[in-house]
Amino acid sequence: VVDEDPILDSDIERVLRLGLLETGTGEALAAQRRRALDLLIEQRLRVHEVDRFGFEETPLELLDRQMEVTRSRFPSEEAFRAELLRLGLDESTLRQLLARQLAVFAYVEERLGPRVFVSVDDIGRYYNDELLPELHRTGTPEAEIPALEAVRESIRAVLRERRLNDEIDRWTADLRSKADVVDY
């Protein structure tokens, strides 16, 4: 229960069955369920914060794309519909769930994104300390190693995503410390 908002066993089942949680091979079902519950707790905390902030509606084209990504996790439209039915969902309920997730992503980008800065020095350090050693470790021929200038924007994107994820983790930990979370 997150601030009097229950997370049901069926919610955990939906996360697992819709492929919303990456699972490792050989991972026990109990560990998967625990990770799914933790994911749902974090999502509820974030959604509650976004609701308090009063963030705007998710654009329909973005929601449509996310629906297609979810559908693509299934071998056919029939398999997708059968799984929704099994989970007790209809397409409009799934759209609502996805819209809430997208609202959180938009909130994160607007509120936390500006805190993330990647300097030229950061990019150089990543190139020299992470990318080059990885390319050498994998046996990439010297002639195929890209120049820093060729991969600068890709590195900037990787570092920005890392730092944004760190900001999200801090934000979520702060939300959790202020919330009433009861784990049965």
Radius of gyration: 20 Å
Structural class: mainly alpha
Overall spatial form: globular
Work out the helix count: 7
Kindly state the percentage of residues in helix: 55-70%
Largest β sheet strand count, sense and barrel closure:
none
Distance between the termini: 8 Å
Order of helices and strands: HHHHHHH
Give the SSE layout.
Layout lengths: L8 H9 L11 H25 L6 H12 L5 H10 L4 H21 L8 H18 L10 H31 L6
Helix pairs in contact: 1-2, 2-5, 3-5, 6-7
Q: What does this entry look like structurally?
A:
- 9% of the residues are buried.
- This protein starts with 8 loop residues before the first helix and ends in a 6-residue tail after the last helix.
- The protein is 68% helix and 0% strand.
- The mean pLDDT is 91.
- It has 184 residues and is mostly helical.
- The chain has 7 helices and no strands.
- The radius of gyration is 20 Å and the shape is globular.
- The protein has helices at 9-17, 29-53, 60-71, 77-86, 91-111, 120-137, 148-178.
- The longest helix is centred in the C-terminal third of the chain and has 31 residues, at 148-178.
